[in-house]
C-alpha cells in the first residue's frame, strides 16, 4: 500500500485522509459521481413520463412501432463494449427502448391477460425499485414483509377463509401452480421432501383440458411426469365436467396410483371459463384429494358482488393462486399463492433453514422472517404495489373495475352478434370474448372443411397488419378443433365502449379484402 | 341497455356518442382521470428521488429507521378498506414506506450479497416498470427479447464458451439452480419429463457442504429428495475437496444410483470460497456427469483480468448460474442461467407449446419467442437494466468495480489484523470478509468452550444495537463449528476505505462494554 498525491486521484478530488492504494486501486472516497447520477436519473424520468406514461397510454398514439428482429438489432446497437457511453447516448438508448416497445398500458392493447397502467401501482413499483429490497427477512424488508402479510390476509378474506390461512407471493402464476403441486404432494407424503418421488406411490394429479399449460410444466419440473397428469374433459363452454373427473380418479385408483391433487381453473386462459368448484370439491372431499384452484385470471371476480358467484365454492379449496397483475392491474408481477392450512405446512414443505439468513438468535420475533416459505432466496416485494393501489382506490374501486370490464365484454359480445361477418364462439361469462371474423369473400361459402381452413388463415394476416400499422393488438389462437379465432380481453378502466367499437371496425378494415 | 343523460355520468363529462349502460355500468370514455394521475406520479417521483435515491444513498443518513413489527403495523395503517384514500394520504404512505425501509443502496448496508444503487440500472428498471412487458414473445416484448439475448451472449463470452450456448434470465439464483438440476436430469434421462422421477434409476447429485441452500431446496422441489444430495466435504477455506467428490461418486455408483450432476460453487455465500473447477470438471468428465457452476455471487470475477483466475475451468461447465444483481449492482433481480448446449436442450426440457401464446403461424421468425424455454409464463425483463448499465459503464467500468470491491476487502482484512479485539477467520479471496469481534472483557480469557460460547453471543447484540441506531447493517451467522461471526461484504463503488474504517470503529463502539 502506497500513498499517492491527491492529484493522482483524478475524479476523487482532494483528500482529507491519506489515500490508500491496494492492488492498484485507490480506495478513498466514493467513485460514483452522485451529482451527475442524479441529473441523469432526473432527465431519464422526464423521458419515461413522456414516452412510456403519457404517450404510452394515449389512445391517439400507436400501440407498437413494429420492427423485425434484424432491423431492431441495428437500431438498438445491442453489442456491449469495452468502453462506456456518455449520458446523452444512454438517454437516446432509453428513448429507443421505449419507442420500440409494445405499450402494454395503451387502451388498445388487448393481447394478453393483463393490460393498462395504474398510477398507484406504478408509483409502488418505482418505490420498490429505488429501495431495492429483498423479501426474505423482516430485518432487511420490514415494510414489505408487513404489506405482503396484509394483502394476503385481505385476499384470503375474499377467498372466504374465515379463519385465515398462509401464503406467499411468487414470480408468476406458473410458479404459484408449482407451489400448489409441491404442497399438495408434501401434504400427502411428507417424506417426499427427503426421499424424493421415487420412494412414493405413483402420484397422479387431475386437471381439465382447458387448464393453463403451467400444470404440465409443473408436473415435468417437479419430477411427477406429464403422463401422471390425468386430463379431464370439459364441456363446450370450457368447464371441467365433474363426472369425468370422478371417472379419472377411479381410473387412477384402479391402477393403484395415488390421486393427490385436483387443479380446478377459475377463469381459463382462452375461453375465460370457470370450473364448477362445489361439485369438484365434493369429489375431492370424498377421495381426500387436495383441491387447488388456479384463479390467476378469474380471482378478481371475488371482489365483485355481482360476479363472485363464478367462483362459488372456492372457500373449500386447499390452495388458491390469484394474480392481481392481471385484471386488477397491479403490474407484472403480482401473484399470490395461498393455502388454507394454518399449521405451517408451507414453511415445512419448503424450508431449508439457512443459518446465515434465518438466524434464530435475532432480537425480534423471527416468525416475521417469512423467506423460508419460498423456493426463492432473494424475492421481489410484489405485494407492495398492490397494497398501495388498494389503499388508493379501496375495495369499491377494485370492484368497479371488475364490473366495468365484464360489462364491456358483454357490450362487445352484443355488438359482435349484431355485425355481419363477426361470429361469437360463445357468450362471455367473464372478460374473454372469443370470435371469428369472416371476410366478405367467405360469407356465402358452405361451412365445410375448406371454409374453416380459410378462416384459420384470416386472423394471422389481420394480426400482422394491425401490428405493422400499430393500431391495436389482440391475440388469436386455434383451440382444440376450432381454427384460429380472436380472443379479446378487457381489463383497464381506461378502456371504453369506443375502443370496443374501434376493435370491430379495425378488424373489418384490415380484413375486408381477405 | 339504456341511454342516460350526460349529467348522470358524473366524472365522465359530456359525451360525444350516446352513452351506453350495461349491467349498471356506463361504458363511455375512460374512467381514469389521466391528468390527476400524472400529477400524482410526478409528485410521488419527487418524493422517491428525495427519500429513496438522495437520502437513501447519503452516508450521513441512517441505513434504517428500526421499528418493531407491532409499532410499524400501526404506523403504516396496513388494513385495506372499502373506500380509497386521497392523493395527499397516499403520498404520506409512500413517504412512510420509504422512511421505514432499509436503505439497501446506502454505503453502509453490508448485510447481503447485494448493495448499492446504480443510476443506470435504476433507470432501466423505471423503464421496464412503466412499459410493463412480459417476456414470452417477440411480439409483446421485442426490445426486451433482444437485449436479453445480447446480455446472455456477452456473459457466455466471459464464461469462455467460444461457440456460445443458450440461456434465460430467472427470478433468482435459487431458481437458476433449479433449472440446472432439471436440465441435467433431462439431459441424462429425457424420458423423465413425461415419465417422472419414479420411472428413472435413483438420481444423485453432488455439492459441497458450503453450497447455497437452494441446492437442497431444488432437490426437494424437483422430486429428487434431499437424501439424494450427496454432500462433499470442503477444506478449511470452504472449497470442495475433489478427492472427496470422487469418493462420493464412487459410493453412489456402488449403491447402483445414477450420479447425474455436480454443483460447484464459485463464491460461496458465507466464506466467498471458489471450488476448484478444473479438478471437479476432470471428475465429471470421467464419470460423464453434468457440471453446474453456481457462480451467482462469484461470476462477476470473470470480468476482471486480475480475479478471473478464481473461476479457472468454468468454461468446462455444462451450465452456469450468475447473478449480476449481486456484485454488478444490476438491481434485484437479475439472474442468468446459461447452458453450453446449442441443440435446444433448454427448450426441449421446459417447453409445453401453448398454442395461445406460441403460435407457429406468426408473420415473423418465431425462434425469437423464447418464453417456452422458461418454467414461467409471464416473466420480467430483468436483463434490460443490466444491458443499459453495461452500455453506460462499459466492460472496463464493470471490471473496475470488481477490482475495487476486492481491493477494499483486502484493505479491511489488513486492518482487522492490525486491530486489537478483531480476529479474521481467513484471508479473503473475494469480497467476503469474515471476522470475530472480541470485547475487552474476553480478551484475556482462555479460548475454551466457555470463551467461544460468550463470543457466540456478541454479534447478535452488536447487530441489535447497530439496527436500533441505524448506523450500518452487517450480517452475522454461525458456520459449522464456528460460533457467530460477522460477514462483511463489499460491493458498491460508493463504498470507500472510510466506510471500512467506520465499520470497525462502530463495532468496537457498540460492543466495547460486552
TrEMBL record, chains A, B:
It comes from the Eukaryota. It holds the Pfam family Pyridoxal_deC. GO terms for biological process: carboxylic acid metabolic process. GO terms for cellular component: cytoplasm. Its cofactor is pyridoxal 5'-phosphate. Keywords: Decarboxylase, Lyase, Pyridoxal phosphate. The modification N6-(pyridoxal phosphate)lysine is found at residue 326. GO terms for molecular function: carboxy-lyase activity; pyridoxal phosphate binding. Belongs to the group II decarboxylase family. Homodimer. This is Glutamate decarboxylase like 1. It comes from Aldrovandia affinis.
Amino acid at each position: 500500500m502506497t500513498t499517492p498525491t491527491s492529484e493522482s486521484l483524478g475524479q476523487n478530488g482532494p483528500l482529507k485522509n491519506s489515500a490508500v492504494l491496494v492492488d492498484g486501486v485507490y480506495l478513498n472516497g466514493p467513485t460514483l459521481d452522485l451529482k451527475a447520477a442524479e441529473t441523469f436519473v432526473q432527465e431519464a424520468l422526464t423521458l419515461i413520463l413522456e414516452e412510456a406514461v403519457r404517450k404510452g397510454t394515449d389512445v391517439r398514439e400507436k400501440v407498437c412501432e413494429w420492427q423485425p428482429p434484424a432491423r431492431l438489432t441495428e437500431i438498438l446497437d445491442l453489442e456491449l463494449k469495452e468502453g462506456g457511453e456518455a449520458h446523452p447516448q444512454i438517454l437516446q438508448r432509453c428513448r429507443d427502448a421505449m419507442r420500440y416497445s409494445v405499450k402494454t398500458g395503451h387502451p388498445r392493447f388487448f393481447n394478453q391477460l393483463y393490460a393498462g397502467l395504474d398510477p398507484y401501482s406504478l408509483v409502488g413499483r418505482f418505490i420498490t425499485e429505488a429501495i431495492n429490497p429483498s423479501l426474505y427477512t423482516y430485518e432487511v424488508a420490514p415494510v414489505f414483509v408487513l404489506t405482503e402479510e396484509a394483502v394476503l390476509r385481505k385476499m384470503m378474506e375474499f377467498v372466504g377463509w374465515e379463519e385465515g390461512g398462509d401464503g406467499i407471493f411468487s414470480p408468476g402464476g406458473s410458479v404459484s401452480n408449482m407451489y400448489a403441486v409441491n404442497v399438495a404432494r408434501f401434504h400427502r407424503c411428507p417424506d417426499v421432501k427427503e426421499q424424493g418421488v421415487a420412494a412414493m406411490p405413483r402420484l397422479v394429479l387431475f386437471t381439465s383440458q382447458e387448464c393453463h399449460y403451467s400444470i404440465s410444466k409443473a408436473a415435468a419440473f417437479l419430477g411427477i411426469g406429464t403422463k401422471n397428469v390425468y386430463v379431464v374433459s370439459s364441456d363446450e363452454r370450457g368447464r371441467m365436467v365433474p363426472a369425468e373427473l370422478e371417472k379419472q380418479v377411479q381410473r387412477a385408483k384402479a391402477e393403484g396410483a395415488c390421486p393427490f391433487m385436483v387443479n380446478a381453473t377459475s377463469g381459463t386462459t382462452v375461453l375465460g371459463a370457470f370450473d364448477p368448484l362445489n361439485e369438484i370439491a365434493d369429489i375431492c372431499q370424498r377421495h381426500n384429494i387436495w383441491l387447488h384452484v388456479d384463479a390467476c385470471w378469474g380471482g378478481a371476480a371475488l371482489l365483485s358482488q355481482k360476479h363472485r358467484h363464478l367462483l362459488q365454492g372456492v372457500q373449500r379449496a386447499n390452495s388458491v393462486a390469484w394474480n392481481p397483475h392481471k385484471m386488477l392491474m397491479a403490474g407484472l408481477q403480482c401473484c399470490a399463492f395461498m393455502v388454507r392450512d394454518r399449521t405451517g405446512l408451507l414453511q415445512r414443505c419448503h424450508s431449508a433453514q439457512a443459518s446465515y439468513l434465518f438466524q434464530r438468535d435475532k432480537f425480534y420475533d423471527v416468525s416475521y422472517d417469512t423467506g423460508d416459505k419460498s423456493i426463492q432466496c432473494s424475492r421481489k416485494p410484489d405485494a407492495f404495489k398492490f397494497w398501495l393501489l388498494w389503499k388508493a382506490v379501496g375495495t369499491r374501486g377494485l370492484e368497479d373495475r371488475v364490473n366495468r370490464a365484464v360489462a364491456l365484454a358483454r357490450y362487445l359480445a352484443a355488438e359482435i352478434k349484431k355485425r355481419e361477418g363477426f361470429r361469437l364462439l360463445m357468450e362471455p361469462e367473464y372478460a374473454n370474448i372469443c370470435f371469428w371474423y369472416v371476410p366478405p369473400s367467405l360469407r356465402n361459402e358452405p361451412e365445410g372443411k375448406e371454409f374453416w381452413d380459410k378462416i384459420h388463415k384470416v386472423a394471422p394476416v389481420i394480426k400482422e397488419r394491425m401490428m405493422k400499422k400499430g393500431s391495436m393488438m389482440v391475440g388469436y389462437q386455434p383451440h382444440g378443433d376450432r381454427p384460429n379465432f380472436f380472443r379479446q380481453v378487457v381489463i383497464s378502466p381506461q378502456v371504453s365502449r369506443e375502443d370496443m367499437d374501434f376493435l370491430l371496425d379495425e378488424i373489418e378494415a384490415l380484413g375486408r379484402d381477405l
